[in-house]
Amino acid sequence: MIAMNTPQRLASSAPPGWLPPSAASQGPTPELARVPVLIIEDEAMIAWQLESLLEDMGFKEIALASDAVEAAGAVKGRKPELVISDINLGPGPDGIEVVGAIRNTCSPAVVFVSGYIDESARSRISEQVAGARVLAKPLNGDKLSDVIRDVLGLNRAN
């Protein structure tokens, strides 16, 4: 795990609607250990839950960023092969803009997660981040796991 300027972990229960993945009980997938991942999420608890799910899947190289500045710093260190980003990141550029900028330097698979996805956001994603997948919050762990395996070209049975 590579943490980027994130606050100390807080012990608390999962937010309402977060469904833990049963896929994690299948054990980690060894080929994912070398896949660098960048999570861009301004809500620390959601970022840590995403990180935990990814670790359960077998990912080892995970960077966390809460905004465009932290994401740019994380990309300088190592080019991610997978980016999971919220769309609304608070003040400053939104997730679509941030991931679009990342795509100018490398070509990661992208999954957007958001509590509110309107047609304008979907249109911008299709124009600026072609091939990205979109999931609505609250997240379902199994669905997220399936989408990650799909965007990385993995078969869930592997």
Question: Key features?
Answer:
single chain, about 160 residues, alpha/beta, Rossmann fold, 6 strands, disordered N terminus
Order of helix and strand elements from N to C terminus:
EEHEHEHEHEH
Q: What is the mean pLDDT?
A: 82
Helix content: 25-40%
Largest sheet: 6 strands, parallel
Poorly predicted segments: 1-19, 21-25
CATH superfamily annotation: Response regulator
Q: What's this entry about, in short?
A:
The protein is α/β, with parallel strands linked by helices. The protein has 5 helices and 6 strands.
What does this structure look like?
There is one protein chain. The chain has a six-stranded parallel sheet with strand order 1-3-2-4-5-6, sandwiched between helices. It contains five helices and six strands; from the N terminus they run ββαβαβαβαβα. The protein has a single domain (2-7, 27-151), classed as Response regulator (Rossmann fold, 3-Layer(aba) Sandwich), CATH 3.40.50.2300. It is of the alpha/beta class and 158 residues long. α4 links the parallel β5 and β6 (133-136).
How would the blueprint of this fold be written?
Layout: E1 2-3, E2 37-40, H1 44-57, E3 62-65, H2 68-77, E4 82-86, H3 95-103, E5 109-114, H4 119-128, E6 133-136, H5 141-151
Parallel strand pairs: 1-3, 2-3, 2-4, 4-5, 5-6
